Amino acid sequence: MSIVVQSPTDPKTLRKVIVASSVGTVIEWYDFYIFGMLAAQIGANFFPSGDSTTELLKSLAVFWVGFVVRPFGALVFGRLGDIVGRKATFMITLLMMGASTFLVGVLPSYAQVGALAPILLIVLRIGQGLALGGEYGGAATYVAESAPANRRGYFTSFIQITATAGLILSLLVITTARTGLSKADFEGWGWRIPFLLSIFLVLFSYFIRKKMAESPLFAKLKSRGQISKNPLRESFVEPVNRRLVLIALFGATMGQGVVWYTSQFYAKTFMEKALSIDPTVVSTVMIVALVLASPLFVVFGALSDKIGRKKIMLAGMILAAVSYVPLYMAMSSVAGTVEKGGTITSIPMLPMIALVLVQVVFVTMVYGPIAAFLVEMFPVRIRYTSMSLPYHIGNGVFGGLVPLLSTYLVAHFGNNYAGLAYPIAIASICFVIGLFVLPSGVQDTRMDEIDGEAS
Predict the structure, then answer these.
(1) Is the distance from CB of 384 to CB of 138 less than 8 angstroms?
(2) CB-CB contact of 321 with 258 (8 Å)
């Protein structure tokens, strides 16, 4: 038996919930992505080999380690969130992320301590991945459980903006540091500045989150003594919930993951490495495109409240899959050619921004509605655990592999477009699976169910 309860959160409190959740999540994404944005500098300082491509690939491999461990963070912190509470759990993940990121900024280089340097770097990257594995599910669940039933797509879409906002913030900070220092100083020590600055952002977010109350649905569940004693078993052993986890992974999150990292991350690497465009120019293109597209996360989140999550997410996946090759060929055409070893310092900005903007629109389509979609799939007592794992496997393993694998494919085949084969294949497969297995409704009543009482 079950009883359906509606969130008692008033509009003023809900606004505070969204702000507190979003600010903290922006900071965590910022911390996570500055590593990838500075992969070339990290590679040169921690994996010196004399070959920039080898250094970059090793750095991107460590970057991917953070993605690989995200599902483990989802298990550890998802379980904690379903037993102890949403608020306490993502307070822990925030501080864990902040400490790991700050310490990267003070790590000695390979030249100073030898092989110990990359080992410590990997350990801290693991800490970042575990923290983010617990953060996103907590923030999305917290907001969804506080929002009105008919506007969850709209309100949770603000959490979806945070990933792009964190990327924008990382680009702004890195570009400012890069332009304010000589190239030698930035390559030598200036790359550490974004890592060190993160500690102030984390502390600011911590004090905002400290004032938050527990999610109303979880508080009600806890007051009735209905908290799951073993959310891992309930989520992944019981057939009904295990099937939902697999549907979420292969029908939604793996496709969403590759679209996100291709359009917002690989696009930057492609412009810098394949097209030899100056990093400052590339950062400007990315920042403008991301800022212009960001409101669409809310637009598509709100639209999903009216027409359903499935249509919008799958449309974004298939549009990305069929458009990537012509879009990247057009980017090459806009950039023009450069002599071997040279750098392009001036490009037609508007056409390049437009080509990246189109890709980010695909991101907003697949990512805007997905938080509401995931939390609505699972009952309150195991929601944090159940939704976190497929999200972080889809994004961390499938999506996080895009920068490393795509860069490798380009280097291996000597073809600038070879790196697109992987995201196109995964997005297409996910589209086909999702077409047949994803629920078509606007929302799922499991979102508000608390087991154990008659309705």
Answers:
(1) yes
(2) no
- Read off the pLDDT of residues 247-284 as tens digits, 9 standing for 90 and up: 999 999 999 999 999 998 899 989 988 899 998 899 99
The structural domains of the chain, with segments of one domain joined by +, span: 2-450
417-423: long-range contacts, CB 8 A cutoff, minimum separation 24:
417/325, 417/328, 417/329, 419/266, 419/270, 420/262, 420/324, 420/325, 420/328, 422/258, 423/258, 423/259, 423/261, 423/262, 423/266, 423/320, 423/321, 423/324
With both helix axes pointing from N to C terminus, report the angle between 239-248 and 370-377 in degrees, rounded to the nearest 10: 170
Tens of pLDDT, residues 84-142: 888 788 789 889 988 999 999 999 999 999 999 999 999 999 998 898 888 877 788 88
CATH number of this structure's domain 2-450, picked from the four choices 1.20.1250.20, 1.20.1290.10, 3.90.1150.10, 2.170.150.40: 1.20.1250.20
User: Can you give the pTM of this predicted structure?
Assistant: 0.84
Confidence (pLDDT) at 244 = 93
Q: For every residue of the chain, which 3-state class applies, written as one string?
A: CEEECCCCCCHHHHHHHHHHHHHHHHHHHHHHHHHHHCHHHHHHHHCCCCCHHHHHHHHHHHHHHHHHCHHHHHHHHHHHHHHCCHHHHHHHHHHHHHHHHHHHHHCCCHHHHCCHHHHHHHHHHHHHHHHHHHHHHHHHHHHHHHCCHHHHHHHHHHHHHHHHHHHHHHHHHHHHHHHHCCHHHHHHCHHHHHHHHHHHHHHHHHHHHCCCCCCHHHHHHHHCCCCCCCHHHHHHCCHHHHHHHHHHHHHHHHHHHHHHHHHHHHHHHHHHHHCCECHHHHHHHHHHHHHHHCHHHHHHHHHHHHHCHHHHHHHHHHHHHHHHHHHHHHHHHHHCCCCCCCCECCCCHHHHHHHHHHHHHHHHHHHCCHHHHHHHHCCHHHHHHHHHHHHHHHHHHHHCHHHHHHHHHHHHHCCCCHHHHHHHHHHHHHHHHHHHHCCCCCCCHHHHEEECCCC
Is 212 or 360 the better-scoring residue by pLDDT?
360
Determine the Cα–Cα distance for residues 305 and 294; give it in Å rounded to an integer. 18
Average pLDDT (383-400) is 88
